[in-house]
User: What shape does this take?
Amino acid sequence: MKKVGILLLTIALIVAFIIPYLDSENEVVENEIDFGFASAQKFFSVKRGEDFEFTCTDLSNIDELRLDIDGVIVKSWKLESNAKQKFSFSTNTFDLGTYSIELQAYNKNELLGSDGGRFLFINAEEGPQEFIYELLETHPHNPENFTQGYEFYNNVLFESTGNPNQTNATKVARIDENTGASVLEAFQPNPLFGEGITILESIIYQISWQDQKCFVYNALDLSLLDSLRYDGEGWGLCNNDEHIFMSNGTNELTVRDPENFEILKTIKVHSDRGPVTNLNELEFFNGRIYANVWISEQRFQHDSRINLNKIVIINPKTGAVEGLLDISELIRKAGAKNVPNGIAYRKSSNSFWLTGKYWEQSFEVQLSLKNTEDAQ
Assistant: This one.
């Protein structure tokens, strides 16, 4: 009898232990909400100014729906019907960028369910215009230079290079434009990986890839003046005669104070189709930023038009990609295995010099807007 009693007691304890979990599971099932999103869809896109729209297919027991963007409730809807409904949210007040979104369902202020882990791209309002070039001249370029930055200053050509696998590869050089050879050079030791340069008021700024150092040189004699710090990776630089713009291989450009390199603003670069990432060497001209595009499997390009054959033209006030320049033919002319990387605007000739890593040539071109009517 003792054995039977013990058995009955054991069964009772097991049942008592399991019942609460069964009730809990039933409660979760009852509170599951169908917000209408396909489970595999993680990214949604709208052009800035358009409405972000979505449809909830099951609103049972819900009296309020809230939209959370980047952790902040931006809109809520009071519901009077359980029927399938369409909802919309205006993006007029948002900057271009990628935002996390979450929908939350409530009944009498009690959270019944949520749908998060999704992202909204707020993109440029217009698609990029297509630019073309006229090839004016071909100039020699040092094929030993793994070009990272390229710039004219006071009508003199400067170049920065970097490659930790090559001795004395990280340097800043003043270039003889007739030969492509260095007239004057300043080096940083391996394994420092030099990246882009920009020149502002006779001061050269050269960033490094992952060493988080910006080297500051005198443009007259390339003497080292200072070393500034920053967080993250450094890829390309340019300036607008007041502030420095820096790329880091993503779709973000940081606006920096030339005195201390502190971030003043972050610009999210988007076309009308999505974020434009892998931004590399930069040049500033006529209120716009011109950028080479690197190719990387780690940073997916959401706009299929963007690749390393393109130079993208960016409005720094909004981050919108306003133009594309296809340089595929120049890449073929260069006959180079390495990618294009080098954009230098020359004011005296109103032309751009374009080159690449280990290229033997630099191509001088003038840009113009493509006549779309002729192209049709």
User: Anything to note?
Assistant: The chain has two domains: 43-123, 129-375. Residues 1-9, 11-31 have pLDDT under 50 and may be disordered. The domain at 129-375 is CATH 2.120.10.30 (Neuraminidase).
